[in-house]
Structures are given as structure tokens and as C-alpha cells.
Amino acid sequence: MKHLIREVFQEEGYVFATGAADIAREAGHTRPARLASNENPFPPSPKAIRAATDALQNANRYPDETNGEFIAALKKRHGDYRFVASVGMDGIIDTVIRTLISDGDRVAVATPTYSYYGLAVRAQGGVTVSVPRKEDFSVDPDVFCRDAKGTKLAFLCTPNNPTGTTETIETIAHICENYEGILFLDCAYIEFDGTDYRPLMKRFDNLIIGRTMSKAYSLAGLRVGYAFVPEWYELFYHRAATPFTLNMVSQAAAAAALRDTVHVKTIVSVVQEWRKRFIDECPYPVVPSGANFVMVDVTPRTAGDVVTELAQKGVIVRSCASFPGLPNHYIRVSIGEPWENEAFIAAISEIYRI
Ligand code: PMP
């Protein structure tokens, strides 16, 4: 019966990196440093945990389909913008693509970057057009607009996964002004950087800013993403979305986490301190990063070799070799718990000296 499946799904889907974890386990590390997934190593706000526990009492009912409590918390946190929410930012990405892309439609992607955009576009019958970033991994807005011409939708990630590169507000404004499609600005990691693109929502009606509760807010396991959308677009988004996307436990936790501004501020400043230490103490060059991870250039070694050697020393990081458009000598290292970060610095220093 497999022949009945659409051709696009005959190929491989999203690839979860597991190889390094297996190597660490085989080398006898029962508790390796897990620095491969850009997770937040700190637990969620206790207020979020309490709200989620309370919400469970009502799980016999469907959740509020307007995501009322969460949207109200977003407005309190960010101001009077239009918001939509979904199952992670991945859920938002899927729904946005559904509203715009039919068979054969073209979608621009600033590359190298997060792989899910391409998978989601192809699943909807669309075709991706790669717009290469500059040598320093930033985006040239003129090149972007030229290469993205004729596409309906474009994805630009800032700070970018896996490079950590943050775009200036001017770059984004220039693209919004000159690009005829809709720009999806993926800001999954923006809390760790602080660049404020939000006011651009008031100037442009072709901008969507995607955000997530998975990173700075420590709620990856509850799958909550949201986006700032133009007023005209909100109605169409809801037409394309699945009903009751966000469950009531996630909604309650996300609203409480947003209200606990002290918790997130503390986490962000710890991550920023470690990011600086990674840059100062890693013997290999580190690409400037606005995220909770850094990309390290391990030349003259290959990413695969260094990932294996680190795993043997009990430190799991991600090879960037699978990101189209990146040469095979970059690794991505998430900022983890202090002991994990110390383990990375010690292990990479040993590898460098050999
Ligand atoms: N965008 C980027 C750049 C990401 O790295 C990720 C998570 N890996 C996502 C979106 C998806 O995040 P979420 O957990 O909200 O689905």
C-alpha cells in the first residue's frame, strides 16, 4: 500500500540527531552533557507548573479555542498587536504555509538555516528557492529581494539557527519595503539577543514574526508557539488552522510563564554570560551569536570527527554538516547547565591540543 503515499513523503522527513548520544552511551557515559538541541536546561517557571497542574482538572472539556488567556498575556507582555498561537512555532509555520502555498508555488529561504521550512513547504506542494547568506552568515537585503522575486512567502531566521546570526532592524525593514510576498521572520531565539523587531508590525502589512515558548521560557515539552500577524491576515490564518490546536494545559502554562518576567530575565542573563565564556574560552573560532547556542569553526578538522570525539568524552553536540549550504567544519553547541558547559570547554580544549 506504500505506493499510495504522496511522493514527497517517500523521502526522509525531519532528521533527529541521535548518533552522538549512541557514541556517548557506548563510551560508558550514563549522564552526558546534552548540548545538541538548543533546549533550555533550566526548568520552567514554578508559576507555569502550578498553572498547568490546575488546568488539568478541566481536561474533560475542550480548551478555549480562542486561546483567550494566552493571547491576553501576550498583549500584556508585548502591547496591542494581533497574535495567533499554535503547537510550537512549527505549528505556526505549517499553518502559514497552508494559507499561502499551493502546488508549484515558490518560497524563498535564507540559507543555511532551520530545515523544517523546506520540509513543510514541500509537504504542501511548494518549491523552495534558496537565498544564500553572506560569508559572515548575515543577509544582504538587496540580494534577498532580488533572489526572492516572484515567491509568495519567504523565511528568514534571526538569530539564525544554526549560525546564531542576528539581522539589523534596518535589514528587515528594507526587505519588507521591497519584497512583494510575505516575510516570515523566525525569532525563536530572540529573547537571548534582545533586538526588537516588534514595532515593524505597525509599519508593514507583509510581516509575520514567529516566536516560541520552547526556548527562553523553558516550555519545549508543552509545544507552544505564537506569532505577531498583520490585522488583515488573522482571519485567513484561523480558516487554515486545525480547531483546538493548543491544549488547555499548555495554554495555562504559557500564559503563566509569560507573566513571570523575573524567571525569564534570570535565564536569559545566565545564558548570555555563558555565551561570552564560550566565545572567550573555546580554542576554535566561534561565530558571533545572539542565540542560546554558538556555531564553532573546527577547521582543519571535520564536524563529524569533532562530534564523535566530543561524544566519546561525554559531550553531545550537533554537526552542522546536514544544513545545506554549510561546509563540513562547523559544529553547533547549545548553552546548557553550568556543569555541561564546563564539560564542553574542557573537552574541546583537549581536542584542540591533540
Ligand atoms: N524555528 C527555529 C529556528 C527553531 O530552531 C525551532 C526549534 N528547533 C523552531 C522554529 C520550532 O520551535 P517550536 O518548539 O516552537 O516548534
What can you tell me about this protein's structure?
There is one protein chain. This protein is α/β, with parallel strands linked by helices. The protein folds into two domains: 2-43 and 262-353, Alpha-Beta Complex (Aspartate Aminotransferase, domain 1); 58-259, Type I PLP-dependent aspartate aminotransferase-like (Major domain) (Aspartate Aminotransferase, domain 2, 3-Layer(aba) Sandwich). Helix content is 39%, strand content 16%. The chain has 13 helices and twelve strands. It has helices spanning 19-26, 46-55, 68-78, 88-100, 116-123, 141-147, 169-178, 200-203, 234-240, 248-259, 261-281, 303-312, 338-353, and strands at residues 33-34, 82-87, 106-111, 127-132, 153-157, 182-186, 207-212, 224-229, 293-297, 315-316, 318-319, 330-334. The strands form three sheets. The chain has a seven-stranded mixed beta sheet with strand order 2-8-7-6-5-3-4, with helices on both faces. The chain has a three-stranded antiparallel beta sheet with strand order 9-12-11, covered by helices on one side. It has a two-stranded parallel sheet with strand order 1-10. The longest helix has 21 residues, at 261-281. Bound molecules: 4'-deoxy-4'-aminopyridoxal-5'-phosphate. 4'-deoxy-4'-aminopyridoxal-5'-phosphate binds at residues 38, 88-90, 114, 157, 161, 186, 188, 212, 214, 220, 225.
